[in-house]
TrEMBL record:
Lineage of source species: Bacteria, Bacillati, Actinomycetota, Actinomycetes, Streptosporangiales
Alphabetical list of InterPro entries matching this protein: Glyas_Bleomycin-R_OHBP_Dase, Glyas_Fos-R_dOase_dom, VOC_core
Signal peptide residues on this chain, from the entry's feature table: none
Gene3D superfamilies, alphabetized: 2,3-Dihydroxybiphenyl 1,2-Dioxygenase, domain 1
Full protein name: Glyoxalase
Length: 115
């Protein structure tokens, strides 16, 4: 299993204002599903930050996202390691497979891969 990127997920009701603010630092909108928006640096596309008020299809809003090359392998490692699975693996309509796991500090991690 390989980690491809890590993206902080910021809970915010001010998504549009956040886009404008971080745009001043050079970030550009690369994804917007209406309930989650991701900004990235054009010169370093893996440098990203997402904003959302709440996750539309899950029971909790994740604190960060970790993209991996094999979601099912990551799930097996976490489950077998005794980690708390907050949201089981699921294929989402926007083209990702994901699950949520709680880290030792209580943060919810969205582990995902693009299909």
């Amino acid at each position: 299993m390989t980690v491809r990127r890590v993206v902080p997920n910021v809970r915010s009701e001010a998504v549009r204002e956040s886009r404008d603010f971080y745009g001043l630092l050079g970030f550009e909108e690369v994804m917007n599903h209406g309930w989650i928006m991701t900004l990235a640096s054009p010169s370093a596309p893996a440098a990203q930050i997402s904003f959302m008020a709440a996750d539309r299809t899950a029971p909790v809003t994740p604190d960060l996202s970790v993209e991996v090359d094999d979601v099912d392998a990551a799930y097996a490692v976490m489950r077998d390691g005794g980690a708390e699975i907050v949201f089981p693996p699921r294929d989402e309509e926007w083209g990702v497979r994901r699950f949520f796991v709680r880290d030792p500090g209580g943060r919810v991690v969205n582990v995902l891969g693009h299909r």
